[in-house]
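Two proteins were folded this term; both appear here.
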Amino acid sequence: MRRIFQVYLLPGLVFQSVLIGGGYGTGREIAEFFMPHGALGGLLGLAVTTVVWSALLAVAFEFSRLTGAYDYRGFFRALLGPFWRLFEVIYLLLAVIILAVLGSASGEILAQAFSLPRLGGAIVLLGAVGILAFYGGVLLERVMAVWSFVLYAAYAVLFGWTLSRFGGDIESAILTGEIVGAWQVDGLRYAAYNFVAFAAVLFALRRIATRGEAITAGVIAGVIGIAPAGLVFVAMLALYPDIAAAPVPISMLLQSLGKSWFMLAFQVVLFGTFIETGAGIIHSVNERIASALKENGRGFPHWARLATAVAALGLAVFLAQGVGLIGLIAKGYGLLSYAFIGVVIVPLLTIGVYRAFWIGRRTPGAT
């Protein structure tokens, strides 16, 4: 039973833990990419994201298994050869933006929940992420797995409560059948730049032993990753279209329920997801540094892992204060999504599929 969890569920839980805090945990990404397309158009866009994630993760997990690459440096050296640094440049840029989003959102949430200065939320986040980065992979796996179940429980309560309170408004929004604009494009763009989260999942794939396990785990991971986003989108329809302009739409939805204790509890859970996401991103960078040092016969001490976290988060905090949450998601994410399509998705669906499913199937032991 433990192996089933570690092989089929843990990669998806880590994937969801890393990607959720970057935006859809607050509802801001949902408002930016899906709500402009109407109720039905947004749901169709989410369906596109689900299919894309599941397909890409299945290929990525199998490619990782066959090449033995469990950090993004090894993975993209195997996939892109001498051009692998293109990914690293884009990944590090996006990582800083995601960390800045987390810092900005943390400030918003703690300011609303505890009347703290917005900078205080970012500093608390920095400290918690630094602790997880210091202790590394084993602790991070456990924290992500446990907190994912807490998160799902919180979203289930939010969804059920909103449905019971505003079910008629949600139903009316969906029954209008409103489809506006290119929902297919935004579903693909959203899947493209958020797929970066898989780079932080690679450390959790070492237990996958067969092709069937890799493909199944990848498909499941795509579904696990999108499920909370679907709940958030449907719940947000209760206040559609006004909620689309809110900096933190989830907070607006929580306020509409009129229960301060639940709002406080949910924001604590949400803050925990920000810590998970930040720690996952920092850990992926630390693993990349550790693998490079290992090739040269050198180790990567815990204090250096902590130093990486402090430096990256410090830069992100300054960026968050200067740009703000809405600007970071609308501008930074949107531009980098196209770069990820060219540097990650296209090579993975061509070179990756060829090597993993054509050459790999003719390799002894590639089952």
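Next, the second protein.
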Amino acid sequence: MRKLNRKIDVTAACRTEERIYCAVTVIAPEPADIGTAPRVMFGWPGGGYNRSYFDLHITGAEGYSQAEFHAGAGVIFVACDHVAVGDSTVPNAGLDHPDIARANRAVVAALVEELRHGALLEGLGPVEPAAVIGMGQSYGGLLLTLAEANEPIFDGVAMLGWSGINTTPPTPLPGSPGWNELAANGATHPYRRILHYDDVPESIVVPDLCGWPLRALGEPIPPWGARWMPGGPNAKIKTSPVTPGIVEAEAAKITCAVFIANGERDVCPDPRLEPTAYRRSPDITTFILPRASHMHNFAGTRKRLWRKLETWSAGLIKAD
């Protein structure tokens, strides 16, 4: 298996003269094991997380890397940082959601073009992807919706813990009285129950939630965490990810296949209503992951979701 870190120039997509790069990690089988028409999956994390969410390596534990799971089935997996997240550029420009979504799409276009010209992986000649799939977890689902609705590029999109109708976090909201005191200790975080199921080890929960999502205030950041939300401290975001109907119009424009996954405890008020958001999609799959909360890749049942995604994405392979 190969892993390659890259930075993709997305300046033009952001419509700014400031040079901006998005960081990605390509996780792929050895070229001899890829074949002539691989599936390519792109994954974007939620707010407060970087691309390592899809390639988790936790001290003393194994089997947390979704990227390695799919690569083991012959998939080329690209774990992506949003603008201002992880190793991506933190811009001075006041970007908004459409800007960030265009940047994410530009990453896909650039890497798929490299794949088609044999420039993505050393030793892998030109290949045509059998299917190009985008996955967005939480906040990543918002930006994936905008990207695909406004300039389609995917054969399928997976919305993981994101509602096309109304993403609804529990109360209290960040910034409420007493929030900082409770959130400073991951063990007492107000969102512990909605983000992590009961069997997730304390060794994961505590560093993951310590200060989340206000890590910009100086709290320590776990390897999979992010200092900034997408767009960074200078972003000009007009609406919150939890604004009711924030992507209603865009979700209704999506015409590719849609996979909708939620944990048993999550932020979608009624997962069974989610297909109604994607009125033009001809192929909608829903799945509720048992014994899981919003952060699916930390759940003890995470591989059930990955297997579902593997089967679903294989069904998107273009054929006569």
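The CA atoms of residues 277 and 318 lie 25 Å apart. The chain has a mean pLDDT of 94. These notes refer to the second protein only.
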